[in-house]
Amino acid sequence: MKQFLKFTFASVLGFVIGGLILIFLLFSIIGGLIASSSKEEAGELKTNSVLELKLDYLIQERTSKNPFEALSKGGLNNGSSSGLDEIIKAIKVAGDKEQVKGIYLHVGIVPADYATLEAIRNELIAFKKKKKFIIAYGEILEEHSYYVASVADAIYLNPAGELLIDGFSSSTPYLKGMFDKVGLEPQLIRHGKYKAAGEPLIAKSMSAENRQQIEAYLGSMYNNWLTDVAGSRKIDVNTLREIANQLKVQSPEDAKNYKLINDIFFEDQVHEVLMKKVGVTKMEDIQMISTAQLAKHYSGAPFSTKDKIAVIYCVGDIVSGEGDEETMGSETIASSLRKAKNDSAIKAVVLRINSPGGSALASDVIWREVMLTKAVKPVIVSMGTVAASGGYYIAAPADVIVAEKNSVTGSIGVFALLMNANELIENKLGINIETVKFGEFADMGSPERGLTQAEKVVIQKYIDRIYDDFITKVADGRKLSKETVDSLAQGRVWSGTDAKRLGLIDEFGGLEKAIEIAAKKAKTTEYRMVTYPEQKDPIEQIVKSLSGEASVWMMKQQLGAQYDWYAQINKLLKYQGVQLRYTLPINIE
Question: Which of 77, 157, 255, 395 has the fewest CB atoms within 10 Å distance of its CB?
Fold first, then answer.
């Protein structure tokens, strides 16, 4: 017994000591991160500085306060977690500060979407007007990275590297065969022949309507890519299309021969180019500065400036209640709108929407607050990667809608998804469920049985009513006839390019363009920016990272490139209830 108690005590003591050491290490890391952040804020910008811009991670709308964001979101990359807001600020500072001589664009495989890259690309084009240089270098470049790199004064490719130019493609998994095997029957009721968010659950192959809309907006984005890249590299568009169609670039030499790059260099040779551009003889004499560091030198209007413009970030799936970093909670956004509406110093509101939609009810709650705010002051929408379905629902009332050419929008349609698990429960698992009810529809939607025809009719009427309300609100907001909106709706998705032609958006541009329009509408020339919803405290973010986000990171490490498939399927299975939602293809390659 003494031996048992001794070993037990030793084990417990070891566990406690280990836990204390872990806590000590955690706080040491936190302290180091905070100290590091403080040093960066106080850091001096040296004379021969160059912004080193790396885009090899998933770029969020806003820079997170979470110091572990790079680990949880992007895996073990270069440690960067600058959001789009911080990247844009850094490029602006690079253009305005005399100490910054140029930009070193270090590119590779970029997981960002084309609307985000378009915003960065346009800011780089504006930077070039400052008569400063942009040098791009990569070991492996593909369409995403090359889209940004193409604006550079010179592009250099590693001698053993690759430039992959082969066109655009997208893939979507269709799951009916799997569900048939396990005994699950997804029951989809929808309004809109193009409403394809739940289609992969009920079909084994893509419908003609869904293929038509994907070909339309993917083709539009590809044409934008060809036009933009050809213009920057001074290559004929048809020549560039032929290069992709025939896969003519199969070596760095091919890339140089077709004038897609300037030369084939190792990175040390690119460093020599940088030194010559800056006017130094040693690489150590150049201060290579990150986006996070340089963005800290950004200074907007002073705090004493009376007028304000509010930017409300509406990001993620639309859900009821409070939101988080991944979702747009109706109460969170509604509260932000109320604050902006009731603050007399805020002269205009910009909604930055990056959302595929979600709950119909939650979307309507947000829509109402947008309408109430619009009655008091200008409301401008800036669309990011996607502002579709519920994302478009809340955008429709705005005074002006601004989007990138590569934004995905529309998807004006409604669907409801219920899951019939009768086959799985009874025949696969051998479980018998007995139900006692009063009322014919009392157990409607129960997973142990399928919908009756009468129940389908009831739900369809509900869906149709919501659809009619949707197109009515869009017609009112966009000053279009209801018939016109219906012809553009039916759940169909549009690129920003097509949406402008059809009257679903007003202007091309990013967040900065929307803010300029908001200021003009509010008749103010001196203003400072405020953002909502307020971001969580870093300590809260750390706690979250060490729990839920840690498991996501581990899953990514286990599944690798297949994680996107897992995440997409997992989302599809959560789409139960009435939805205003669009699901993007898993990948655009």
Answer: 77
Residue 131, token pair as written in the block: 């008569």
Reported as type and span, the H/E element at residue 415 is: strand 414-420
pLDDT above 50: residue 16: no
Q: Which of 355, 408, 354, 405 is nearest to 384 (CA)?
A: 354
Q: Which residues of 491-526 are buried (b: 16+ CB within 10 A; e: fewer)?
A: bbbbbbbbbbebebbbbbbbbbbbbbbbbebbebee
Give 588: exposed, middle or buried? Use CB within 10 Å, 0-12, 13-18, 19+: middle
Classified by CATH at the fold level, domain 308-417+450-541+575-588 comes out as 2-enoyl-CoA Hydratase; Chain A, domain 1 (3.90.226)
| Choice among 389, 407, 411, 495 that is catalytic | 389
The single residue of 54, 195, 513, 556 carrying the catalytic annotation is 195
Residue ranges per domain, the chain?
Answer: 45-165+249-295, 171-202, 308-417+450-541+575-588
Residues 477-510: pLDDT tens digits?
999 999 999 999 999 999 999 999 999 999 999 9
- Predicted confidence at residue 10, as pLDDT, reads 47
Active site residue 195: yes
- Transcribe 30-87 into DSSP letters: HHHHHHHHHHHHH----SSEEEEEE--S---SS--S-TTHHHHHH-SSSS----HHHH
Instruction: Report the alpha-carbon distance of residue 67 to residue 534 in Å, rounded.
Output: 17
**Which of 212-216, 286-290, 387-391, 539-543 comes out lowest in average pLDDT?**
539-543
Please write the tens of the pLDDT for every residue from 155-188.
Answer: 999 999 999 999 999 888 898 999 999 999 999 9
Q: Decide if 45-165+249-295 and 308-417+450-541+575-588 have a common fold.
A: yes
Q: How many degrees, rounded to 5, is the angle at CA 118 between CA 112 and CA 124?
A: 110
For 175-194, b/e burial (b = at least 16 CB within 10 A) is bbeebeeebbbbbbbbbbbb
User: In this model, does residue 262 exceed pLDDT 80?
Assistant: yes
Q: Which CATH architecture describes the domain 45-165+249-295?
A: Alpha-Beta Complex (3.90)
Question: Cβ(289)–Cβ(274) under 8 Å?
Answer: no
| Spatial distance between the Cα atoms of 138 and 551, rounded to a whole number of angstroms | 32
Residue with tokens 């809608």: 401
3-12, 55-64, 256-265 — which is least confidently predicted?
A: 3-12
β-pair partners for 292: none
State whether residue 366 is helix, strand or coil.
Answer: helix
User: Do 495 and 199 form a contact (C-beta atoms < 8 A)?
Assistant: no
DSSP letters along 502-524, please?
HTS--EE--HHHHHHHHHHHHT-
Q: What token pair was written down for 568? A: 């997409």
Q: How many angstroms separate the CA atoms of 392 and 116, rounded?
A: 18
- pLDDT value of position 6: 43
Determine the pLDDT at residue 192: 87
Average pLDDT of the residues in 575-580: 65
- Active site includes 251? no
